[in-house]
Amino acid sequence: MNGFSILYKTFKSTFILNDLNTKVKHILISLICLVLVKYVYQFNFFVSGGIAVFTFITIELIDGFGKRVPIRELFSFIVFLQLFISPLIAYQYFNNQASFEMYVSQDIYMAYMLPALIAFSLGLHIMLFERKANFSFEKININRKGESVALVLIFVGLVSTFILENVPSGLRFILYLMVMLKFVGAFMLLFSSNKNKWFWILLVYVLFTIETIRGGVFYDLFVWVGFLYILLELKWKSSLLRKLVYFALGFVIIYFVQSIKREYRELTWQKEVLIEDREEVFFEIASEKIGSGNTFKETNNFDRFISRLNTGWIVSKVMEHTPSKEPFVKGELLLKDVKSVFLPRFLFPNKSSTGGEDNRKKFTRFTGRRLLSGTIMRVGAFSDAYINFGVVGGWICMFFVGLFFNILLSYMMNLSSKRVEFLFWVPFVFAYAIRMSDFLMILNYTLKALIFMFMFNYLLNVFVKEKK
Fold first, then answer.
1. How far is 91 from 103, CA to CA, in rounded Å?
2. Is 155 domain-assigned?
3. What angle do CA 227, 398, 310 make, to 5 degrees?
4. The predicted structure's pLDDT at residue 466
5. How far apart are CA 314 and CA 141, in angstroms?
6. How far is 125 from 230, CA to CA, in rounded Å?
7. Looking at residue 129, what is its pLDDT?
């Protein structure tokens, strides 16, 4: 009886839900999701397992808000959403009749993509060495010098925004990095005692929202609002229910914007509406859409939403075209990309560029689809892995891509534990990489962003003095 009592108490302390380790709870919920999906929707175990993994990643992301800076979870969530969930909806719900069709069968696509996504996420989350950045987010406090640095960053970022389009193309990337400094400054002010911090934060985001509406490309706005929310949660410490509400609200807003984006672009781009009048047009269309009450009822809105999320159609086009019409390059393209990033253009003027004609040629070569001049589409990192190394080699390649981001993020967080201002540069370094563009774009942006971060911080330390 005594032995049974000990066994019972051990079972109770180990397996009762309230006492379980958080990650184990999330795994159990994901396994329940797997069983439900498998037997309710009759998906095979492979796809059901992928949905369970996505469920786990989503729960980890939401749970991470307020506890840490969940960049790893955000990376995994975005790629699974764009390359697994959206294509799955296109195949199953739309019977592959959505605006952007998938060019290979679901079985062929998932046989490559799902293991590649899991391999990427494993590389991103695997613990190779102890992460030393265990400082308390609650105790972050930007001092007076930090406030001055933040205001300098905001000023430089805002000025750079207004002159970006008027600088030579060779300097535009540096100006683009300088534009993003306003967000680093806003994030620093968020954790300061500056009396006017909300004025400056709102100024940065209101001006950026107007700029985004006028340009008609909303991805950057969603990304930077997302980063702001992640940092706000470190201060808010919202309950799980509130975090779920905010998360759902974010999706509703993105869905709504996607539902009106095509109409807005047609009116402003084709009819050449003046730049300064575009936000008025946007809000008129938005008001009419809200008034109609049909935003969430019309199937074509859901089609647009899924089609915009679904970057898997490009991967499927690559898989249809390669290697049947264009052979695998066996790592040659990746080696060329690495050389293009590290070798200076003045010594190697013929190295590949991240945009323009080089990008169009690459896209056409591996998809068979021609792009019009001025149109920018990239094959993406998962296509790059497939092009370079095939199916199994692509899985291995994406594991190491995830590992690269893992090591870089660990390094950034370790820097933050020594100098807290580096925490606010994490979104700056990962802002473009999180889109998972092709290898050349990821490597080029990340390397230059890191160099720029260190150089700019050195200059700030030299010229901005400690206030008494």
1. 11
2. yes
3. 60
4. 62
5. 45
6. 18
7. 59
Write down the pLDDT at residue 10.
Answer: 41
Distance CA 408, CA 428 (A): 13
The per-residue DSSP string of 247-283 comes to HHHHHHHHHHHHHHHHHHHIIIIITT--GGGHHHHHH
Say which DSSP state 68 is in: B
Q: Give the tens place of pLDDT for each residue, 172-197.
A: 888 999 999 999 999 999 999 999 99
pLDDT for residue 47: 92
Helices (H), 18-105: 22-40, 45-64, 71-80, 86-92
Residue range(s) defining the domain that contains residue 389: 43-133+143-188+312-463
Q: DSSP readout, 280-332?
A: HHHHHHHHHHHHHT-TTT-HHHHHHHHHHH--HHHHHHHHHHTTTTS---TTH
Distant-in-sequence, close-in-space partners of 128: CB < 8 Å, separation ≥ 6: 403, 406, 407
CA-to-CA dists, residue 323 to 134, 143, 366, 387, angstroms? 47, 57, 9, 8
Tokens describing residue 461: 């330390």
Q: Is 268 exposed, middle or buried (CB count within 10 Å of its CB: 0-12, 13-18, 19+)?
A: buried
Residue 277 is predicted with a pLDDT of 75
- Within a domain: 201: no
Full-model pTM = 0.89
Q: What is the pLDDT of residue 356?
A: 64
The strand pairing partners of 142, in sequence order, are 192
- Residue 119 CB burial class (10 angstroms; 0-12, 13-18, ≥19): buried
Please state the domain count of the chain.
Answer: 1
Predicted pLDDT at 39: 86
Question: What is the DSSP track for 328-391?
Answer: --TTHHHHHHHHHHHS-TTT-TTS--SSHHHHHHHHHHHH-----TT------HHHHHHHHHHH
Phi, psi (deg, nearest 5) at residue 68: -160, -175
Q: Which residues pair with 192 in a beta bridge?
A: 142
Q: Is residue 235 part of a domain?
A: no
Residue 134's pLDDT is 52
Helix (H, G, I), strand (E, B) or coil at 192: strand
The vertex-231 CA angle with 225 and 236, nearest 5°, equals 110
Task: Answer for the pair 432, 378: CB distance below 8 angstroms, yes or no.
Answer: no
CA-based diameter of the chain, in Å? 84
* Contact present, 317 and 90 (Cβ < 8 Å): no
Phi then psi dihedrals of residue 126, to 5 deg: -60, 140
**Parts of the chain with a pLDDT under 50:** 1, 3-4, 6-19, 130
Burial readout 34-70 (b: 16 or more C-beta within 10 A, e: otherwise): beebbeeeebeeebbbbbbbbbbbbbbbbbbbbebbb
Residue 424 belongs to some domain of the structure:
yes
**What confidence score (pLDDT) does residue 8 get?**
44
